[in-house]
TrEMBL record:
Binding site for NADP(+): 6-11, 67-70
Originating species: Zhongshania marina
UniProt catalytic activity: L-proline + NAD(+) = (S)-1-pyrroline-5-carboxylate + NADH + 2 H(+); L-proline + NADP(+) = (S)-1-pyrroline-5-carboxylate + NADPH + 2 H(+)
Gene: proC
Pathway terms, separated by semicolons: Amino-acid biosynthesis; L-proline biosynthesis; L-proline from L-glutamate 5-semialdehyde: step 1/1
Protein name as it appears in the record: Pyrroline-5-carboxylate reductase
InterPro entries for the chain: 6-PGluconate_DH-like_C_sf, NAD(P)-bd_dom_sf, P5C_Rdtase_cat_N, P5CR-like_CS, P5CR_dimer, Pyrroline-COOH_reductase
EC number: 1.5.1.2
GO MF terms held by the record: pyrroline-5-carboxylate reductase activity
Length: 272
């Protein structure tokens, strides 16, 4: 595979970091971006081929990953349309809220498009991605897309495109929710008198340990939580405060808000 990224920002850098760590040669990866700082940062992740000419990049690759912001996707897609029609790469879009239908219209022809929603832990090969393929994507291309995203973590197909809005709300945005919980626990630890270092490290190791246990255990998260919670003990007091504060409903509302925002983005971007 020869993989090209249009847009060399945070997500491109996360996926490239993961791909190279998984053994892919940086010489088979291209990235184009008008911003020299983005390219310099990318080069510090891996010695990939870089440039600022999107059309030149398309001539080099058979898999094209569109990693620009949703708001400029239409402009970028229309600029590269003729080159995509000539070279016929598999197009993978990671943009939130850009439907495969809009992208196909902007690119023209009948492009093979995999729309996916990865997340930033791809950088440490612990990403979680939902993927959707349009009707033009053949089996070999589905495998290529899965191979790329599996190199950076878990990759799961959804069969209806609108499910990607839920994926965006759950795992695309999800790292931010856990980071926010970490920030809150670290602050609480400091307020109780722990040093910055002790509060920070204990929080991070606890998050890692809980995630590893939840992933490797044969019982679910609820049972693992119950096993920490001794009757009349400290965890019970804390969990009751979180439950009484409406934590579950708060998460349901937050994720639903993110899902609705993904839907709104799709409508806004289609209309542009
Ligand atoms: N940040 C995240 O956690 C996630 C982001 N996404 C999606 O990934 C996409 C990229 O997001 P980020 O990497 O966070 O943004 P970013 O702003 O870090 O990167 C976008 C890059 O595109 C470049 N760019 C601008 N115009 C360009 C053009 N005409 N041609 C080529 N490159 C151009 C910018 O210079 C920038 O380096 C977005 O569509 C976002 O919805 C998807 C999953 C998670
Ligand atoms: O916040 C956003 O819109 C993007 C999509 C998922 C994560 N970041």
């Amino acid at each position: 595979m020869r993989i090209g990224f249009i847009g060399g920002g945070n997500m491109a850098s996360s996926i490239i970091g993961g791909l190279v760590a998984s053994g892919m040669s940086a010489s088979n990866i291209w990235a184009s971006d008008p911003n020299a700082d983005s390219l310099a940062k990318l080069k510090s992740v891996a010695p990939v081929n870089t440039g600022s000419d999107n059309l030149a990049l398309i001539a080099e690759v058979n898999v094209l990953i569109l990693a620009v912001k949703p708001q400029i996707m239409k402009l970028v897609a229309q600029d590269i349309a003729a080159a995509v029609q000539t070279h016929q790469p598999l197009v993978i879009s990671i943009a939130a809220g850009v439907t495969s239908g809009s992208l196909a219209t902007w690119l023209g022809g009948k492009p093979a498009i995999v729309r996916c929603m990865p997340n930033t832990p791809a950088l440490v090969r612990s990403g979680a991605t939902g993927l959707y393929a349009n009707a033009q994507v053949n089996d070999a291309q589905r495998k290529q897309a899965a191979t790329i995203l599996e190199a950076v973590g878990l990759a799961l197909w959804v069969d209806q495109e609108d499910q990607l809005d839920a994926v965006t709300a759950l795992s695309g945005s999800g790292p931010a929710y856990f980071f926010l919980v970490m920030e809150a626990m670290q602050a609480a630890g400091r307020e109780m008198g722990l040093s910055d270092e002790v509060a920070n490290q204990l929080t991070l190791q606890t998050a890692l340990g809980a995630a590893q246990m939840a992933i490797t255990s044969d019982v679910d998260a609820a049972e693992l939580r119950r096993r920490v919670t001794s009757p009349k003990g400290t965890t019970e007091r804390a969990v009751n405060i979180l439950e009484d504060g409406g934590l579950r409903q708060l998460f349901a509302n937050a994720l639903n808000g993110a899902r609705i925002r993904a839907e709104e983005l799709a409508i806004e971007l289609e209309g542009e």
